[in-house]
Structures are given as structure tokens and as C-alpha cells.
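Q: Give me the 3D complex with zinc ion.
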Amino acid sequence: MKRKNKILKFLIIAIFILAGMATLKFIQPEKIPNDYTIILVNEKHAIPENYNPKLTQLSNGIYIDSKIYPDLQKMFDDARNDGVYPVVSEGYRTHEQQYQMMKDKINSFINEGYSGNEAERLAKNWVAEVGKSEHELGLAVDINADLLYSSDEEVYSWLADNAYKYGFILRYPPDKEDITGIDYEPWHYRYVGIDTALEIYEQQITLEEYLS
Ligand SMILES: [Zn+2]
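A: Here is the predicted complex, encoded as C-alpha cells.
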């Protein structure tokens, strides 16, 4: 009798553990691919909780994923040789910084007279929710012009033609808003590695399409 109880107890515990594992698997966000530089992050794919980028700090204080640093550096050197002067204006953001950005945007809409619910809805059109911004990966950079020497348009145009050679893609193109869910952002570049960037550039597709 005692032995039977023990077996029963063991079975019940085993079922609980297995059920727990199944639930965990179910709610687990995006898995980190073998080549982590092609990880998909958007409204439907959140950054895994165990994602922990290795960072490098740029001379202007902004952090980026260490892996993208050499190619970013080379891209900027070559741009300058072509007479175009880019600067990184946004790089890695912590989850706390992303949360704060969202909070600030909601408050700015509330200050404009919108209700809390409306402000939240509107803010989501402008700012990604926590865990859903590529900036929280460290693999995305916003690139603008050093306005002493270049215009933003010159920089955006140079990047659109050349960034893929260094492993960066224009992540939110003008005609792909229905796929990316984000309005055209000529400044937002995402590192995916040189081979992937070339494929995406040549086929004129998005990261969503490349991975589907
Ligand atoms: Zn950006």
C-alpha cells in the first residue's frame, strides 16, 4: 500500500513538472537563433528574457553590440571618404530606458489633452513596447548627419545605397509598412551580417520576409 502511494505521488509530481515545462515552452518568447544577429524583434516577437548583449561604447557615449562595431566603424570611415558625415544618434537601450520612453510619450499625449487610454494607444504608434524594440538588442542604430558637414538627406541616401555592404539593412523601408508594422525610418539601420544584408538588399525584402 505504502509503495503504491509513493508511486502515485511520484507520478503526480512528474505530471506537474511536465505540465510546467510545457507551459514554459508555450510562453517562451522568441528563441535566439544560432546566428543571433538575425533575431527577429517586432510587435509580435519579443526579446527573450535571457538575452544579454556584449556591449561596446562609442566615443559619443552610446552603446552598441560589440559584434557590429568593426563593420560600423568601417562604414563610417568609407562614408567620410565619400564626403558624407554620419553620426550614431541612438544605439542600445535598456528595457528601463524603453519603458521610460513609452511613459514620456504617453505623458506628452496626456498633456495635449488626451485621456489615459487614448494617450496609451497613440503612444504605441510612436514607441515600441518594452522588449519589442530592436534598440534593446544593441543591433540597431539610428544614424543621422553631423550637420556641420552633411545634411540628413545626404547621409540617408548614402546609407540606402551602401549600408548592406557592411551588414546593415534599412529596417523599415517606405513601401513595407504593412509588413514591418513601422512607418518609414530612413535613419534606422539594423545589423544582420554581410551575407544576410546582401540578400535582403538584392531581393528588396524585409527581415520578416527573409525569415518567413
Ligand atoms: Zn531606431
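A quick observation: Residues 90, 135, 140, 142, 188 surround zinc ion (CB under 6 Å).
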